[in-house]
User: Fold these one by one.
Assistant:
Number 1:
Amino acid sequence: MGLGPVRLIDLVDTTEAVAATAARGVKIQRLAELLKSASGTEMAVVVGVIAGNPRQGRIGVGWAAVDKTSSTVSANATLNLTDLDDLLTQLARTRGKGAQGTRRELLESFLTRCTEAEADFVRRLLVGELRQGANEGIVTEAVAKAAGVPSGLLKRAVMLSGDLATAAEIAMRQGRPGLKAVDLRLHTPIRPMLASTAASVADAIADLGSASVEWKLDGIRIQVHKQHDRVRVWTRNLNDITERVSEIVETVAALPAQQLVLDGEALGTSPEGAPLAFQDTMSNRTAVDSFFFDLLHHDGVTLIDEPLTTRLERLESVVGRHRIPGIVTDDPEAGQGVLDEALTLGHEGVMVKAAGSVYNAGRRGNAWRKVKPVHRFDLVVLAVEHGSGRRQGMLSNIHLGARGPDGGFVMVGKTFKGMTDQILRWQTKRFGELAINDNGWVVRLRPIQVVEVAIDGVQHSTRYPGAIALRFARVVRYRHSKPASEADTLEALRALSR
């Protein structure tokens, strides 16, 4: 392990080199070299920043504050990574009246000490647009290489500790023995297992064979730990929400077990019992009920390595009516029946899970598949953002508008997903021709170009003037022959939320 301190410019140069290559092995090697140069106290900082997830979490600095900062920079690289970490800590701690102005002053002061490359990196990090070609999987492999430990052992430690930075520090300081000692601990949340997608229930069952087909609720993913009379609740991002969900705490406290780790959903319901949309469940204006689909620990026994069917049997015996409905089947028609029932009752779709699968926490594997309807809309591109990282020099993230009642266009979301290299090259040229204003970050366009996007739905939002926002929007294709006057309406999108 190096003695540090890691210079900020060295981190920036490394991430630029990683973004410039498509070779996974080269990415891992360059990142491993950087990690080896870090001291023990810097490890969590380095890992968090290069993965785009600083240890301070959400900082509270948005596009507006970043956009208003001066372009004045330093000619000399004098900053260390610890200087950046100190800035992020100060920004995260700044709260209350006048916080935005104070944050802007802190950021402005710091950026004037940065080189141009460092300042660009910091801005993109703060607004979540780093996209430097190093996702968490690559960073994990780089940590394993730097520490000289098996990547599988490191991944298991990550899922059980709930934090890549923590596992990385253990790997670098203690090696294999330290990683092997990491185990599931009550009241320490682990990362949730994630699902891939399938076009249909039949496709999922054809791939998986015998599977549990369960309702997919549009709620808040929760992980609940119980140890005797103490209950705590976390979200999928491992945020502690115990104080906000007293109903869930009371429900789990009453279950017939002394020790539990449960995976499930918190869902708001109307007085008639109909499920509420995700954003309404999140609003804190309604009571929530809890429904569970997995059991990871039960009275001293950790179950993550047991097959799903074993976990479900135990789950049924513990949570009773709070289990999410489903069946275990290898019959596509029976599985389709579960999907039809779920949709009829207002739920999102279904999950199809291999009956013999273990719980691979924190990983998006093929053992779990989500199946839900996809909606397509023709919208108008109102603006586009300059790309960064691998998309440097391209026009990338598009602002989407629906046709309003007055014939104008109302912004309803953004997306950079679904864009092939060919699409990026085309839209960079096309939007250059349609540009009416460019502030160096966002290019405003004449509202002419129609794009077809796929979305999972919409949700209520105060962020956009139409009071809704698209969920998981991705580009399908550009509609070159369709005029903007025939784009889909704001009312058509709002109908999805009803």
Note: The chain has 17 helices and 19 strands.
Number 2:
Amino acid sequence: MEDILRRGAKAIGLSLTAETVEAFRAYSAFLREKNAVMNLTAITDEEDVARLHFLDSLALVTAADFKEKSVIDIGSGAGFPGLPLKLAEPSLRLTLLDAQQKRVGFLQELCGLLKLGDVRCVHARAEEAALNPPFRDAFDMAVSRAVARLNVLCELCLPFVKPGGVFISMKGVSSDDEIKEAENAIKRLGG
């Protein structure tokens, strides 16, 4: 796992400390342990977790500067992409939002295990949380991965972003149709 993480991180311009690599190893082990009793991910092999969850999440650093930014991860699930970003950029102020309490419990336990500060785990539906003043227009960035089609994601995520902020949705290489489908939602929501 260490070699995969270090080579992958280097390819996107990141250098991971020994402490960070160990945190990723602990994250992977905890994910496998908890996944045995709750459905968090279909990907559990350590090397696949490193490639398909951790490095995939870290690829966002090529799209934006996360240093000292407030970030909300919508539909965080098992913590992707938010927690890998936090491990790579400790100055990031992170909110993990998920609609399922069992996943939020997992995230809280994981953050405690990894001794992560400046991480808030919130149990709420995005469409409801976005109506609350502490969340609406409150974040420099919103991120999401594997949550919904882009037109729906825009409606769920853009209300959290400050004017001038950024929403990054992780999509596959064949996302042209989805982007075109979302143009109206993006325009109507001021994106």
Note: The radius of gyration is 16 Å.
Number 3:
Amino acid sequence: MKKYLKGLSLVLFLATLAFIIQNITSNYFKLETLTWGILIGMAWVNLVGTSKKYDCGIAFCQKKMLKTGIVLLGFKMSAEGIKTLGIKSIFIVILYVILATSLAIIFQRILKVNKKTAMLIGLGSSICGASAVVALSDSIEAKKEDTAVAVSVVSLLGAIGVMGYTFIFKLYPMNQIHYGLWSGLTLHGVAHAIAAAGAGGAVAKEMGTMIKLIRVLMLVPVSLLLSKIFGVKEKSAKLPGYVLGFCITTAIGLSGFLPSNIVDLLLKISDFLILLAMTGLGLSVDFKNIKNEIGSAITHGAIIFGILSCIGFVLTMMI
């Protein structure tokens, strides 16, 4: 437990700071606490820095607390929200993954990016960010360097996307359902999608979470397909356990079995855990680690993100 304490303490301190700043500035500058958490985390790691002794605690917040927060978020899902998505959302997600992968290949050739790095950036952009990059790297037998570059690129672009989408919503408010679906369909990681969608309100957050988790479901079929294409045996990715957990809590929430005060408490815990995860996410965006990838890899990822964001906006209008 000791190895986690320093990192956990730092994340808790910065998350509390994010909460305080959001309260102070809310009357003048509309920015969500989750976005403040990412910004403060990024500022801290790049201006103050952290040593390796903080890594375990920060990683724990990024992974375990985020997953727990997502599972608890299932209690908030509504039958109306699930009905809104419908079966066509699955086909739209499949189309989105195909488009993202195709764009990654096309621009890899134009920009002369390493083939496997480009493929991983495309997969991270279309499925679930850094988690997809790591999960699928074995399926294409990518080198560690390829994986590291792709993780850095999608993490940075995802964090920028959260801030960009939040500002867009504040400047040009749109329908919560469409904004949530747009965030969930086009932003890189699960954390990025939830943070951005949350800025649009409760309905937007619900929509963003559900369609993002449909994207996560693509991990298994995509990994099996890639393993076959690249001739890699026994390297398929497994479906994350938190997706099943989310489905279970959603079913419990829809059943009305739990009293409303208990559900409210669980949702507050979920919000708190996700805030810690967002702050930890900010602490992982160290510009020193990506200084050698500022060129073609980031350009590649940014172009894909820009095109997919526009296409995704149109696709969400069809749901």
Note: Residues 144-171 form the longest helix (28 residues).
Number 4:
Amino acid sequence: MPTTDVLFALTGDVRRNSRALKQLRALGGMGLDTTVLTLGAGPTPPDLPNVQLVSVELPPARGPRHFWNVHRVFKQHAEQFSARVYHASDLYVLHALHQARQHRHSSAKLVYDARECYPHVASTAGRPWVTAVWERVERRGLRHTNAVFTVSDSIADWMAATYGGRRPQLMHNVPAYQSVARTNYLREHLDLSEDIPIVLHQGQMRKHRGCGWLVEAMAHVPGAHLVFLGRGAEQLVLEARADAIGISPRVHFMPPVPPDALLRVTTSADIGVTLLEDVCLNHRYALPNKLFEYIMAGLPVVASDLPECRRVVVPSGVGQVVEPTDTAQLAATLREMLAHRADWRRQVRQGASAVFETFSWEAASQRLTETYAALLAGETL
């Protein structure tokens, strides 16, 4: 039976998940051997020391059957290993890893990373019975964990109030700090002149992420170009809408780039936007990684006026918050910020240090490694 220090599982491709990559580097820095169960095939990135990737394939399905397949297939793979720590990087693999731990090594530890407020994501909004099912699943899973992390204070507070027990530890979804030199990547790729302003939306194009409202607002931001950097089910809808309102030459769709190459692309824009709509607790309490990527790349931010986003953007002066469905307000904010984009760039440089003093991957990484060290030493947290 193969043995490993850590068995790490994620319902996604770990190679495209910046949070998981940072965690794996931190565990590798501790000298721990980590086996990762991941969707998608491909080689292990060269900068992941002591990491082995195991590709997991799921049969096609939707709805409850999809989640049953996730549990069944990940459990089958996990039971092939004996690990000292089982790390569930989302709720959907938590029970699979718990059962695999019991099957192989009941004295091993179970760590859960609550990267979302899973019972209250956008797909469960208005479906109380689905929310109730996922709350029950998470409540049961938490009983078996030895350590729990999450991404924002609001989600940590909600989990503690909803489930009781110890409040999850914070591991903010923030990139490791680095100095980023400005580039012309987007202008060179799109053949745009230096004087044309660029608004950037990073990440997947899904419903309730403000993408449609952003396209509508751009009709009232003359001369500016909009770049969607990523993929998603809404792309065709957005393309059609841009064409219908006559701005398709100013709206561009580019495929995602690897996490480690992202910031040199980001820094070539003028404004970064993150416009989650307040349709569920997960959006309301979110603290998106892209928010910090924009700031680190020197971009002023236009963000949804949600508690966690406001907590970052307003006190530091690195951008403005808006109601994403108010296209008039959104357009006016974009026009004002683009008209003074050099001043906003300077303001972001001044405010970024305060942001990254409070929201630091170095501090979050230390919490992760200290927790692992305690668990492996047999300490009770």
Note: Residues 318 and 348 are 5 Å apart (CA to CA).
